[in-house]
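Can't attach files on this board, so I'm pasting raw text. These are the components:
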Amino acid sequence: MKTDKNIVDELKNRFPGGILKVGELREGQLLVELRREDLPRVMEYAHNTLEGQFLTMAGADYVDSLNRFIVDYVLGWYEQGAVIIFRAVVPRGDESFPASTPLIPVADWYEREVKETLGLNPVGHPNPRKLLTSDDWPEDLFPMRKGFRNEAPPPVKADAKFPFIEPENAGSFNVVPYGPYHFAIHEPIYFRFHVDGERITAADLRAGFNYRGLEKIAETKMSYETIPFVAERICGICGSVHGEAYSQALERAAGFETPERARWIRAMMLEIERIHSHLLWLGVATHMVGFDSGLMQFWRVRERIMFLAELLTGNRKQYGMIVPGGVRRDIREDKREKALREVSEILAEYQELLDAALGLGTLQTRLRGVGYLSNEDARRYSVMGPVARASGVNIDARRDYPYEAYPHFEFETPVQTGGDVLARTVVRAYDTLESIKIVKQALETLPDGPVHTPIDYIPPDVTSVGLVEGPRGTDVHYLITGGEDTVYRWRVRAPTYANLPVTPLMLVGETLADATVVIGSVDPCISCTERMMVVDDRTGEERVISGQGSLEGIK
Amino acid sequence: MNLPVLALNLALAIAIAPLLDGLRRKITARLQNRVGPPLTQSWHDIIKLLRKETVLPEGAGLMLRVLPALMLMLSLAMFAMIATVTVQSPMDEGGIIFIELAVLSAFMFAIAGGMSGNPYGVVGGSREAILATLVEPSIIVSLTALLLFKGSLTLDDASRSLAFGGTLVVAAVAYLLSLLVESGRVPFDVAEAESELTGGYLIEFSGPPLAMLKLGQFIRATAMYSVPKLFLTALIPVGVTGDAFSIAVTALYMVSILLCTLLVSMAESLNARYRLLEASKFYAVVLIFSLLALVIAFYAPGWR
Amino acid sequence: MSSILKLLRLGIRKGRVTLRYPAERTPTPEGLRGRPVLDFDKCIGCGACAKMCPPNALTVEEKENVWTLRLYYGRCIMCGLCEEVCPVDAYRFSDEFELASATRSDLEVELKLLRVQCKGCGRYFTTKRVLEDAAAEYSELAGGYAGEFKDMIYLCPDCRRVKWSESLADAYREARHES
Amino acid sequence: MSPEDDLAAKAEKIRRLGRSPWVFPVNSGGCNGCDIEIVDTITPYFDAERFGVRVAPSAKQADILLVTGPVTRQSLKALMNAYEATPEPKLVVAVGNCACGGGICHDSFTVMGGVDAVIKPDAYVPGCPPRPEALLYGLLLALGKAEQKVRRSEFKEEGIDENRAAV
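---
Top answer:
Structure tokens for the assembled complex are below.
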């Protein structure tokens, strides 16, 4: 079984002079420092040859004695449960680094974001357009730099335009704007389709509608105790996932061990959230293909989980339970029994509904063979969660990077190889079944003991990565601890950030009728992504995704 | 031209059509384990829409204002051609015009969509046109079989010339199946698919024009619902006694429109939406099926 | 075909599950985080909750002799940090959740307390209630030192530092004088 | 407009909406917790359709705009387009804390800080996220069918009004 040490050794003998220093951050997480010129080659080797999953990439503005920027690429090897951070230094004054996007397309969004928020220019990046900031945000103002003051935003210009990508032969086609307020998708996401009749030939999307600068607020205004409440409000559906990933990263940086009972309750809250998120998606997906009773029936079962969450935490969502050091509310004995009864009823009701709804003929015809994603593409774009597991990529952070109380629970991870929307529906449906069983196990074997012990000391300037399997995939929080009781740099990479670049890939060739359900099948959580961007752009003809070129278009 | 019956029919149309839609929403809600709106909800919707301001896209032609009124008149005209609660129909020999109006109003929706200039409207309109070209023939054929069977062109229950035959049943089934599309609900609401085309051909309409279009839709659907009664009376000679008004005919009419509403709302709440392709294949089969009925009606006397 | 029948059975057998809200008040579980209620008598005006509140729903304004605490329910995320951090437990979560209002001002709670001047430099530095609370608590704590340092709490932090360093210097001179 | 005829105009607006308020959710950059609760109100347990509430497919056919989110800079243009496309008489309801006052990111550089920084809402529905019942209650309040329960409360310690209350 290859361990992370072997991976680093393979890197060393592949790039003899390239690897400058290898440091051990915390168990299972290594820091590899290298020169910024070697970044693209090392990234391509690690991602394509060694088959590492691209987890996240973040830049940071160091105003300390060394006064320079750093650029960190984080890759994960799920089989070994290893995380390696590749760090390169970017000196102040010459803020640029060679882009890895031409070699590994998955780095496309991350590098654009670093350019936009920190001003580090990815040289050779095929699509250096805006990602997050609004159309009227000045090009040379970098919000995530330490120098930028939160209270001094430039005035709003109403007429700014976003340079959309028009494939050369766009003239004759009918351009269909889709969003930003679309009836079926409850979040502002703006697609521009080029359709030939009803067939989509090219797709381009613009987002940033949800960019609220939460990371800047966390750095400047919040402290370690209040950041979980910001983390939870990144997304209205999978709030605890972010709270847990942040707490996990912070506790790993401080080398802190949470009490056993708190770990049980945390795992249970995460699973309750997965159940409500998947049921929500199943309802919305069936609604998208016209089966409105599906929305009503799935959300009827979901409502019971919301009542259960309200019973345990006092709020239907945004539970406010998971904070660094443990959990804020204990579960009294009478509530535990009531919850146990409630969960077994939910299990029975869900199985009954699942058996009735999934077998529906008209529903299956609408979901089968739509929005196909091959196994290679799933790997090449490092997609996460149910989208990956539906295309045969068997990754699940609960099993591969065990955290909290998951080693004590038995659960399997459903994997399909169909790769279409139907496969994703089946994966999510049986994921929910597993989650309900986990909640049952958690409630039955809840150990005694304290639920929260304060963290006494958090060392400054420690890099740490928190990995949590959210409903949409692995949520990665990259954290550098700071001196004055708050984080120095906190980068949230939600799973949709990895899944959404793939949507135009699936959309091309589909009809307009299926566009909604294909976008929906990724279960995009736009607010999670906080920033979304264009997938493809024009770097000469071979990069454009258009009907003719379609998949070959991407190297 | 029988004026009192005409007046009764028109009044009936405007009164009952929204109520039937309210009933449809109530049955659908009940099948989704919820209480659902009051029966008069569609009434409230239309009244509210009549009082609202109209927001028109700039450069919208005159037709965008005129067309909804035209649509409403067409649907009301259909009611002038068919006998509902009374024995006689307001207009004699109205059968053929009834079929033409049905076909014309179907394509009127397509034109409404096309003219809105909004890409979704255009796509919705073109979908309505494609589906209409497949469904209308089966309606034409099944209604022709009915008229043929009755031996007279007036759509009422009086005359019954031919003996009962297999054709009538085949035509009735073909008509009921194509009724699902006429109501414009799932699984065949491809033209107005809310979650895909955000309102389809209705997207650019608001305020009074939208009210007229919606009312036109309701009245047209109710008119189509009242045809199955004629299939029933063809089997049971209820209205033959000749007096203007008979309880049995009214009861039969009520039963027939309620059954149609039940059929439509059951289909709506237990199915997902068909894609245009599958919907067209489904109706190609129904068309052949109804053509079969017509052929038998003409050439196989024994069978007739 | 069978799943259509199963769905039909599901629809009919489950019956209407709609809660009769707003006719009947739906039951809320114990421990619901509804509206945080500020007890005006208990609050001593220390401002810890305002420092801790993540969305700044609690804001403090100090002007002349008035210490104003404003709670705006339109921004409060009901997280309960104020309840945790309040030294005198002035916050309690009610289970009211029907907080809709037509105007913004109806969602505001305003508490005005008296501020006190420092005996040394005359600057307003804390509220009267904080002093009373500190005086009550301080007397048991200080024990032997009550007399000499009793009036220290009526000084603002700067004057207190000055006075404290003077008394240290005196003690040091005395000790040197005796040796 | 003096407050009286402002109220009169609003009452007239509500009367014309009658019993068929069509709703259109507008997410101006929030975390979509409130949007899911808006959809929750039309599911079986709460069933807003009892009051005639229906989610309109586009702003053109809507009567009440349920605005959620702190109005980020990027969605400001889209929000104003939706507001203009909604035909009169229309109501704007700010749903959730981000819309009522900017929520947890109220002073961020990319956020305008809530709906009332851009449009004056007819009703505020606080909550993070507001329960579906609270949302139903907010809708009924905006339609004048429920009276308001929460009132402004103030407390002045005695002796505050004399100018220099020395201790």
